[in-house]
Amino acid sequence: MSNPPNTPLSQLKPNNNKELTNLAATLTFRISGQGEKLYGDGISLWLTQDKSYKAGSLHGVSPKFTGMGIIIDTFKNVEHGQKHRDVTIVFNDGTKVINLDDDEKLGCNIGKMRYHEERDDFSVFNTSRIRLMISPNKVLVEVDPEGENKWQTCLSVTDTDKRLPKDWLKKSR
């Protein structure tokens, strides 16, 4: 999948129609833009129980959902202060409306996951990767910031039963 360049809140909408009990996935991506610090500053991956895509204010999706999201945000907004995470993982049991300014931020700060070569033709070899592994009671998110097979644990959560409904993954897309 590829995202149109420098287009805020562009959404790609893959869909899964199979029941999941475990999941292992690697997302290879490249975040870049025309400016050294502006544009092309984020991407997100969502596993929700919504039957179809629901647009909203939470990095492109509705802030009320059942499931989890991984938000990669390379731009440090001043208003977020110390709460900024390069990689933020959000969980929702379907009863909350997620507000990243107020809610607990789980995740990590990794550093270089945004590329800028100061020209329109760029190297497709400059990429970053996120690896997600989900089992019934565990979520593990790892990051390979420069695509060099140097994986760093970003988040390991073993209390998903307190964060998500039982069997949430079976209904997720």
Number of H- or I-type helical stretches: 1
- Give a count of the beta strands, DSSP E runs of length 2 or more: 12
Count of discrete domains: 1
**Roughly how many Å is the radius of gyration?**
16 Å
Beta-strand residue percentage: 35-45%
Portion in helices: under 10%
Structure commentary:
The protein contains one helix and twelve strands, in the order ββββββββββββα. Helices cover 2% and strands 35% of the residues. The protein has one domain: Jelly Rolls. A four-stranded antiparallel beta sheet has the order 1-10-11-12, with no helix packed on it. Strands 3-6-7-8 form a four-stranded antiparallel beta sheet, with no helix packed on it. The chain has one helix spanning 160-163, and strands at residues 23-29, 31-32, 42-48, 55-56, 60-61, 66-73, 87-93, 106-108, 114-115, 128-135, 138-144, 152-157. The two termini are 16 Å apart. The chain is mainly beta and 173 residues long.
List the helices and strands and how they pair.
Blueprint: E1 23-29, E2 31-32, E3 42-48, E4 55-56, E5 60-61, E6 66-73, E7 87-93, E8 106-108, E9 114-115, E10 128-135, E11 138-144, E12 152-157, H1 160-163
Produce a short descriptive summary.
Helices cover 2% and strands 35% of the residues. With 173 residues, the protein is mainly β.
What descriptive keywords fit this protein?
173 residues, mainly beta, four-stranded antiparallel β-sheet, 12 strands, 2% helix, disordered N terminus
